[in-house]
């Protein structure tokens, strides 16, 4: 962090990134330097996964939450690194399980090295995260991240159990994304806070903040999958629909479509699986016509607003505006 | 453990099993009772994997090593459970990666639930092991098991890199099985010892004991894959050969076969991959003719004998004969 900011000053996300530039660079170096296998192929696979990067939102949240109470140590770098490893390992296993060929616009690890080595690369990355944690972090931090990992797996299982089932409810959808996505973001915020000396009550607040924010994040992600610019997104639109994963925009569409041939057609193409480009285009145009995407974005905005309510006890912190800016960014991102 | 034994008394493996019957039963209960997912499908998959069981050799070694110095606590039960979870999770991922349809004579988890759910079941079991460790075990024990997990993954990668390559050396073979199999057995012996209050030197001895014993165990396993009674083995013979994994008996055969059409034929069927029943039968008869299986068994026996040399500092322990019996059993088992 290059300099301090006055509390309650409003910050843009770009300003937050600038404020944490040196921390994020240190995390980026750590992400590469901590890959530590004697096996060259494993090293190559993991470097590729680490490089395919992404927004590094989770490490940023770890940094901000660690510094809410004025933390001046350096362990937030390793913690941010670990949270990103856990995230990347999950993505990798998901890609393999889905036989995805692209990840953020580049060939996925499984399409480059085959499923075997990609699964094992994910296993190694995941275990490396715990190896780093065990070397230097207090037990409560490791436990929070271990429980979050269990949640992520449960979420992934639940999501797959509901594939192609148009009777999925909003409640089940939110249960899935809470486990699959929000749990790790919540754990990152909470452990960042613990590292920075947050009280138990503050750590709980940060967990709840991360949970709402993570939910908003995933709803946006699921909505962008239908309405984004495919080039910015780095993958073709309708990816979830193509694999039978029914997310909030589609749940809203199914709620809002009157009974009739149109609704039946949508239900059939979802439950039969593997819809082609034409079917995806039809659903996208129906989503637009019925405003289901806009409705999902509004729901995400509600979660993002609600997340901020957990930050009252940090109102005096110089880092408070940075968390607010992160919450706002999540809603306004386009990819 | 029902009663104590005099040191240096010779024990049979059956006597060892009887001596540890109540510990092994407690571990068996723990293996089932510790499965703790809210998701019914995950619970069902993990129960199935846990039930498919096997010899529970690793938990037994944990028990014996914990009691070498007279440990009277109960945490060896949870530790034995954890080591078995780590082992089972590895088997599960291996089965998925190999699309194995049978495991110990029963349908494999991936053939019952599909690859997706089997991989996730393995992930959950693996993470549950660390969750249990974090709840009650000292950090050094958790770290040893985390490092062993990294070794196991590296070993699996290395083994796959050498598939179908007849230029594999004995040295590479032993490196692979040391990482893939011996590391967890060594970690089980070492952490059992640490739990029971072993000195650093004793813990190192137990690690070396487990490493040699684990190596012997895997060489026997790889040899039984060619020479066992298929019914006792619970799978068809030549499984390694069919997937292109070149193990010690075949390495010996390739060393001992004179240059000529027979050797060329074997090299070709190995490197081309997916040999049929006839090709497997040919290799098995050549192995018998050239005594390559017998030679591999003799090598295993040497490792098992060498393992005992690490036990000198425990010669006065009532548990010393139990470790000797375990080492002897490994050599003489038929499946």
Order of helices and strands of chain A: HHHHHEEHHHHHHHHHHH
For this structure, what is the CATH homologous superfamily of chain A? Farnesyl Diphosphate Synthase
Q: At the third CATH level, what is the topology name of chain A?
A: Farnesyl Diphosphate Synthase
User: Based on CA inertia axes, which overall geometry of chain A fits?
Assistant: globular
Q: Strand order across the biggest sheet of chain A?
A: 1-2
Classify the secondary structure makeup of chain A into a structural class. mainly alpha
Q: Biggest interface pair, residues each?
A: A-B, 35 and 35 residues
Report the biggest beta sheet of chain A as strand number plus sense, adding barrel if it closes. Answer: 2 strands, antiparallel
Give the number of domains of chain A.
Answer: 1
**Number of DSSP strands of chain A?**
2
**CATH architecture annotation name of chain A:** Orthogonal Bundle
Helical residue percent band of chain A: over 70%
Provide the low-confidence segments of chain A as ranges.
Answer: 1-7
Number of helices of chain A: 16
Calculate the terminal CA-CA distance of chain A, rounded to whole Å. 26 Å
Q: What gyration radius of chain A follows from the Cα positions, in whole Å?
A: 20 Å
Percentage beta strand of chain A: under 5%
